[in-house]
């Protein structure tokens, strides 16, 4: 399954270049399992979800530890009609056909309850865009229901769900929600 | 037609709160024509596209003029299945049924050629997500073709098109591309 992210890190400090460059080094342990391409706007990550999300979490954690106010902006894709399925994306955990929505929701709730949550406090906004299905609203409302029951739900906003809590839990939740 | 945006401004300076608060004052001339709600993560704008995009442009311009390196992140929606059509969104310019894709593309190219382009240099990444249609890839590729012929095309990236040029032209282009 092709999965991928375009991510940008925004440290609110005059030394933003230094913070970004040092945070990018947090991706080094993942470079054999992810395709990584950085330019002056964003970094592309291509690889299986169980590697992609820990890589993003570690990059954010290194930047946040500097004490600068930091935002990580990420657009995460599951599949892409114009991209071949990259060999690096093969996932033993996440192959095969998708289960029914209710089953995915219960499995995601069980997984998030078990997720370790080291990290600093973080706030996030999450939106799911579902294309190429006849039931995109069912999928979106199913995901919103999962977020509300996840333990890090803050409140509903227009076009997104606001999450808040420990950054480890917030990243674990994003990983699960993106697999919906 | 309901149109709306969730926007966040990220000034890369220790005085990010001061830059954001002064930039938000650039929205004051639009407050009678837009519904505006700000919290500590983002600002919601609801209103017709011909007001929404100039408001975003002015907010960005005020922030950029401080000299701080600034990013404006925006998710812009056309329509929303869960929202009533807000009276404030009524657009005399943009009501009625949508024209065929090729006609919209040509009209957008004519409009972007006439758009005034005052402003500072800016780089941007643009993605279009089309839900609830049987031809979402046709719409996306039609929009990418428009961006390539627009005069501010930089290059194609995974999942987005990179634009570069005068910030006035980049905002005008976003307005047109979001209407696809």
Tags for this entry?
homodimer, 180 residues, alpha+beta, Alpha-Beta Plaits, 4-stranded antiparallel β-sheet, 3-stranded antiparallel β-sheet, 5 helices, 36% helix, globular
Layout: helices, strands, pairs:
Two copies of one chain form a homodimer.
Chain A: E1 3-11, H1 16-24, E2 35-38, E3 43-46, H2 49-65, E4 70-78, H3 101-114, E5 121-126, H4 136-148, E6 153-157, E7 160-166, H5 167-178
Antiparallel strand pairs in A: 1-3, 1-4, 2-3, 5-7, 6-7
Helix pairs in contact in A: 1-2, 2-5, 3-4
Number of domains of chain A: 2
Gap between N and C termini of chain A, in Å?
13 Å
Strand and helix order of chain A: EHEEHEHEHEEH
Main interface pair?
A: A-B, 38 and 38 residues
What is the CATH architecture annotation of the largest domain in chain A?
A: 2-Layer Sandwich
Percent range for helical residues of chain A?
Answer: 25-40%
Shape of chain A: globular
Quote the beta fraction of chain A.
Answer: 15-25%
Major sheet of chain A:
4 strands, antiparallel
Classify the oligomer: homodimer
Output the CATH topology of the largest domain in chain A.
Answer: Alpha-Beta Plaits
Strand numbers in spatial order across the main sheet of chain A: 2-3-1-4
Uncertain parts of chain A: none
- Summing up helix and strand content along with how strands pair, one would put the structural category of chain A as alpha+beta
Write down how many β-strands of chain A occur, each being a DSSP E stretch of 2 or more residues. Answer: 7
Q: If you average the pLDDT of chain A, what whole number results?
A: 87
Regarding CATH, which class of the largest domain in chain A? Alpha Beta
**Tally the helices of chain A: what do you get?**
5
What is the gyration radius of chain A calculated from CA atoms?
16 Å
């Amino acid at each position: 399954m092709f999965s991928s992210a375009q991510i940008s890190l925004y440290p609110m400090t005059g030394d933003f270049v230094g913070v970004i460059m040092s945070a990018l080094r947090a991706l080094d342990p993942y470079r054999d399992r992810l395709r990584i391409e950085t330019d002056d706007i964003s970094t592309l990550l291509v690889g299986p979800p169980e590697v992609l999300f820990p890589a993003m979490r570690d990059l954010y954690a290194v930047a946040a530890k500097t004490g600068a106010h930091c935002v990580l902006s990420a657009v995460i894709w599951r599949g892409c009609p114009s991209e071949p399925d990259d060999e690096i994306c093969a996932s033993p955990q996440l192959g095969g056909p998708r289960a029914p929505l209710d089953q995915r929701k219960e499995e995601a709730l069980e997984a998030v309850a078990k997720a370790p949550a080291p990290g600093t406090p973080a706030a996030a906004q999450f939106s799911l865009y579902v294309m190429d299905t006849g039931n995109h609203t069912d999928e979106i409302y199913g995901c919103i229901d999962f977020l509300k029951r996840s333990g890090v739900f803050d409140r509903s906003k227009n076009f997104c769900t606001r999450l808040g809590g420990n950054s480890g839990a917030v990243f674990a939740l994003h990983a699960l929600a993106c697999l919906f």
